[in-house]
């Protein structure tokens, strides 16, 4: 063996990380996002298992390094495609998991299938560390640089390729990594590299389309809509933001008008449905410039603010296919700015289906702004009379609690304060949500709005909020002035004419609360009364769902779960009580438990084996060293992930898009950590152990703590200062800010591993496996901690762990 | 849950299979399972007392639940679970609701012997069969063609002559046979179709379950008063007070 196949290693590492990102996309299309997250977390433990496998089979594998590497890379490429295809064949239905024991077995089968490609790739990487211990710094640098480039490349590729073609591509790059490694082969194996290169192109391209065609769950909205007679998908576009499908149902009209008043006599006009990842229906109304066909838009709860304002200047957040823009046009808004995240949705409305849609975004005085709502709101100079937040999520996913794990920066105290700042005097912030029973999102909105209004201690929220409800939607209005009697009279009349119920206005009595759509109790009014009075704290404590205000630091708007309520909800299962259980959180806990148990098994199994051998040799010192090794690599594994995840979150608002934040921040972390690793290797080599600092970790850990703490304090004002900067420049600023932190964070791993290889080289794969397994658990744990304690605490914990690592340095 | 009940529940599928294979020798080997299901539902039936004024589901509803062979309405591989109180998949992305919810919805419609009932969303045909045990005539519509065909054949085969099933868009109802004493809408709807309200008799009741597949969140009960005015009620299928020590 002469030198490690560094380029092949980098390509394989890039393919494996790209595969992880792509799987999340693929599984989100066929299942739901949080189950995708759960499956991948467990599958990633293939990395940990590879550490164990290499530790145990080292004598067999190490002498055959090249063969194993080439074989592992090729197997990764093949299994990346094959295992996804097979996993799709497993008839797993997550919606039945609490009813049907068979589903758990099917889920396990999916885990095992998706585990295979990660295991194959990781065996190659881990074996490289084990066989070329003198070059650990270089190997780590190439490994992590490859991963950084891979995560960026797959996001870029998803703009051009369908998710399925991206899967073929990654299968190909995996095999190509094998071919690269094969170039080192000489003699009678010289044919191997060209042959594998040909296979890298031919095999993925030759896989029949029907084997890997996506087959989404039949319970997703898109699948259900396509069951309707003559309904068909008439267009499909994709990007990393999602797969958009446009559906036309010519025989049986869609007639989508969520929560339409029973007093409405008009039907919606002809509509097309736009689904994102097979869910999240947004309708495209036929519009020919006439107002009459849009009359139904006045019979939704969201029409209320237009009755309180005259020709308002409107800002619509999350305008999608444009129904809320049409609602503003119908109500004679003097100007409409519409913010939409996904440019492809706008393209469908404005270009592809322009004849049908009547190009609402080109109507007089309408402007469309593309990007993340918070960032764009912050950058607006002019005031608005109305900021309208549409129903962005579908009813199905909202009622299943499927968003519990997603961060949401639209509904936080900080966001509301920002919106209120952008309102003209007497302007309104209007938020419409689905009605859930018992109420969950609505009380949280109230609590969040109240906290935003009262933040500066100047105003009382009780006089600045009104709320109405239909049987399916509720609309909350927040003003920067007190509501007056004239306004309340309009509110009453609006509700009377549409048989909507008053849920709250300043001075309202309980007798008015439950007139048209009867509830067991006037829950919404009671919640509002309590939350907008001195009883707020008591209500939040006594309520069986967590409806505390959300903040930018703890942005989990859809997390309503309280452990205390779990036994009661489970006991009510037979009566349909599970619909009150928010799914996302229990799934997160299940994911954490599963991956922890699996990780412990993967770590303990080889240690137990190793310890048995030590007992024979009675080497107590080695046993202690082993404990230090495990603690050290666990600590830096947790710490690295915590810092990375906390900063991805911190940069989300600045980069105005969660996807950009993940791609740019993650890549920057990996690439600069890779450079840090290279540097630490040179330092060690150049200066020598005796001349360097007393504790090798002192400088990196001090640097990490200092920079992270500085950012914690300095980033928010810095981001405000940089508000006018354009998107591309923001990417550069983000990378520059991540660079020094990541550079320092790239050092502890190779420094530690170098020490391990010098003292007990048999422990190298174990150290690697511990670190890999812990990273997976840490990703899940970081979300859990952020839900409860916020991202700042996650970051502080990470710094503490780096200090622990410094103490435990092997 | 008591250990014996737990054991019974675990063993139920096995017992069901054994009974099914022994079915040649018995009139209705599933009867004991069906009785057990009905007893379980009866124990939970006080939830609608505010809406119906009764502390338990009406006796005719429970008799219908005890009579209709649910196992004949589910796909073959779900037969062992037919009498468990849980929703089951019936293909085409549709489900057969859990028996407790079927009983609850039926009870809320307050269907009597002389009533004419419309159902939107035939699905397996099970709900129509239950309604047929109570009403004079049941008209049921299904938008998904294979399900409509299957359910029509099944109801005919099982002798439910009172049920007329057809394929079609439920939004406009089935005006030829209306107005109806009760309407059940088990298909997903973003809003209540005005034509259905028009086809509801004065004094009639309409029930719409709201939620995602396998997850019914609440039932919307629409009542049309004698003067034609319409009111709605949201009924939680469970007794649940969201505020500890209050509410």
From TrEMBL, chain A:
<feature type="transmembrane region" description="Helical">
    <location>
        <begin position="34"/>
        <end position="56"/>
    </location>
</feature>
<feature type="transmembrane region" description="Helical">
    <location>
        <begin position="660"/>
        <end position="680"/>
    </location>
</feature>
<feature type="transmembrane region" description="Helical">
    <location>
        <begin position="139"/>
        <end position="160"/>
    </location>
</feature>
<feature type="transmembrane region" description="Helical">
    <location>
        <begin position="763"/>
        <end position="785"/>
    </location>
</feature>
<dbReference type="Pfam" id="PF01564">
    <property type="entry name" value="Spermine_synth"/>
</dbReference>
<feature type="transmembrane region" description="Helical">
    <location>
        <begin position="108"/>
        <end position="132"/>
    </location>
</feature>
<feature type="transmembrane region" description="Helical">
    <location>
        <begin position="791"/>
        <end position="809"/>
    </location>
</feature>
<feature type="transmembrane region" description="Helical">
    <location>
        <begin position="68"/>
        <end position="88"/>
    </location>
</feature>
<protein>
    <submittedName>
        <fullName>Polyamine aminopropyltransferase</fullName>
        <ecNumber>2.5.1.16</ecNumber>
    </submittedName>
</protein>
<feature type="transmembrane region" description="Helical">
    <location>
        <begin position="629"/>
        <end position="648"/>
    </location>
</feature>
<keyword id="KW-1133">Transmembrane helix</keyword>
<feature type="transmembrane region" description="Helical">
    <location>
        <begin position="166"/>
        <end position="185"/>
    </location>
</feature>
<keyword id="KW-0808">Transferase</keyword>
<feature type="transmembrane region" description="Helical">
    <location>
        <begin position="701"/>
        <end position="722"/>
    </location>
</feature>
<keyword id="KW-0472">Membrane</keyword>
<dbReference type="GO" id="GO:0004766">
    <property type="term" value="F:spermidine synthase activity"/>
</dbReference>
<feature type="transmembrane region" description="Helical">
    <location>
        <begin position="583"/>
        <end position="608"/>
    </location>
</feature>
<keyword id="KW-0812">Transmembrane</keyword>
<feature type="transmembrane region" description="Helical">
    <location>
        <begin position="192"/>
        <end position="213"/>
    </location>
</feature>
<feature type="transmembrane region" description="Helical">
    <location>
        <begin position="728"/>
        <end position="751"/>
    </location>
</feature>
<dbReference type="InterPro" id="IPR029063">
    <property type="entry name" value="SAM-dependent_MTases_sf"/>
</dbReference>
Automatic annotation (TrEMBL), chain B:
<keyword id="KW-0489">Methyltransferase</keyword>
<keyword id="KW-0808">Transferase</keyword>
<comment type="similarity">
    <text>Belongs to the methyltransferase superfamily. L-isoaspartyl/D-aspartyl protein methyltransferase family.</text>
</comment>
<keyword id="KW-0949">S-adenosyl-L-methionine</keyword>
<dbReference type="GO" id="GO:0030091">
    <property type="term" value="P:protein repair"/>
</dbReference>
<dbReference type="InterPro" id="IPR000682">
    <property type="entry name" value="PCMT"/>
</dbReference>
<dbReference type="GO" id="GO:0005737">
    <property type="term" value="C:cytoplasm"/>
</dbReference>
<dbReference type="Pfam" id="PF01135">
    <property type="entry name" value="PCMT"/>
</dbReference>
<dbReference type="InterPro" id="IPR029063">
    <property type="entry name" value="SAM-dependent_MTases_sf"/>
</dbReference>
<dbReference type="GO" id="GO:0032259">
    <property type="term" value="P:methylation"/>
</dbReference>
<comment type="function">
    <text>Catalyzes the methyl esterification of L-isoaspartyl residues in peptides and proteins that result from spontaneous decomposition of normal L-aspartyl and L-asparaginyl residues. It plays a role in the repair and/or degradation of damaged proteins.</text>
</comment>
<feature type="signal peptide">
    <location>
        <begin position="1"/>
        <end position="26"/>
    </location>
</feature>
<keyword id="KW-0732">Signal</keyword>
<protein>
    <recommendedName>
        <fullName>Protein-L-isoaspartate O-methyltransferase</fullName>
        <ecNumber>2.1.1.77</ecNumber>
    </recommendedName>
</protein>
<dbReference type="GO" id="GO:0004719">
    <property type="term" value="F:protein-L-isoaspartate (D-aspartate) O-methyltransferase activity"/>
</dbReference>
<feature type="active site">
    <location>
        <position position="97"/>
    </location>
</feature>
<keyword id="KW-0963">Cytoplasm</keyword>
